[in-house]
Amino acid sequence: MKRRDFLYAAAATPMAAATIDVAAVRSRGSRKVEIAYKSPHATPNGLQATPEGLWVLDQGKENFVSLLNFADGKVIREFQVPGLAGASGLTVDSNGVMWINDTHNSLIVTCDPKDGKLLAKYWCPGAGRPYQVAGDPPATRSPLAPPPVAPANPAPAGNRARLAAGQVALDAKTGLSGEGGQGMEVRDGLLYYACLPSRRAYVLDPKTWRIQGSWPLPGNRAHGVGWEGDSLWIADTNWRALFRHDRKTGEIVEKIQLTDKDPLIHGVTVHDGHLWFCDDVGVICNFKL
Q: What φ, ψ does residue 3 adopt, rounded to 5°?
């Protein structure tokens, strides 16, 4: 199938993501995950390897972006980017501009990686509300996270909204506000990012803000991305797996399946033959590819 035909077929098939048989994808085999060090802040959600070191994007309300020494996790420098909401995924392009997926605001923002000065904001193609399809795995929690705490004063049953699946309240002002992009990488001047709500990966020309191609993803919780040669690893947190996609066709060529005892995959990057990822409970991990 030609690349153009593949991309057209994927875009024209609303349920394309549901047709990916995860069990049938060839596995690279098990991997031993090592916890390298704690993140400098409590909720890391995006990683990016650069010659300077390891960038860590934290999704806490302080919006810290930290540059770490790969060897020991010590902070080289860090800054705060104002106004982010649940940010997930960052990269630095060949012009030295940092791109960040401001996920809960459905925006993509740029800033100066020296001091975090905000440069520009863009709307995020593919943004919207996440949805589920038949065959999705259940939502996951990190085995490192403390047990969930029940609300102190749950609302009386009679006061709870009773809405059918897919409904929104009659006084809702929007039906498609939700989340934007997740993990992000750059190659040859194009931005590659995973988008959780649309269950697709996108190739975006930042100069024209036009999508150059896209392909379906196998689940409803796409997250971090990282290059291995000319292919792109894209994590799915609920599948607890990483899927390697052919850059030109988007087809999945293999997967790495982690276990329910491993930290959950959030931000992802590749460095020196290892895949690095963070769990948003405060740890940065890696394993050998």
A: -55, -45
Q: What is the largest CA-CA distance in the chain?
A: 57
Q: Which amino acid is at 192?
A: Y
Segment among 127-141, 143-157, 162-176 with least mean pLDDT: 162-176
Q: How many Å apart are CA 2 and CA 6, to the nearest integer?
A: 6
- The Cβ of residue 104 has, within 10 Å, a number of other Cβ atoms equal to 16
Residues 47 and 56 sit within 8 Å (Cβ to Cβ): yes
Is residue 140 within 8 A of residue 238, CB to CB? The reply is yes
Give percent above pLDDT 70 in the chain: 85
End-to-end CA distance of the chain: 29
Q: What is the pTM of this model?
A: 0.85
Q: What pLDDT, on a 0 to 100 scale, did the predictor assign at position 228? A: 97
φ, ψ at 125 (rounded to 5°): -60, 135
Three-class SS of 221-249: CEEEEEEECCEEEEEECCCCEEEEEECCC
**Would you say 2 and 10 are in contact if contact means Cβ atoms under 8 Å apart?**
no
Class of domain 25-133+177-288: mainly beta
How far from 179 is each of 99, 101, 103, 124, CA to CA, in Å? 17, 10, 5, 9
203 vs 281: CA distance, rounded Å: 30
Lowest mean pLDDT among 13-17, 58-62, 184-188, 215-219: 13-17
Cα gap 228→256, rounded to integer Å:
13
Nearest to 47 by CA among 236, 205, 184: 184
How far CA 253 is from CA of 26, 147, 175, 194, 201, in Å, comes to: 7, 36, 35, 17, 15
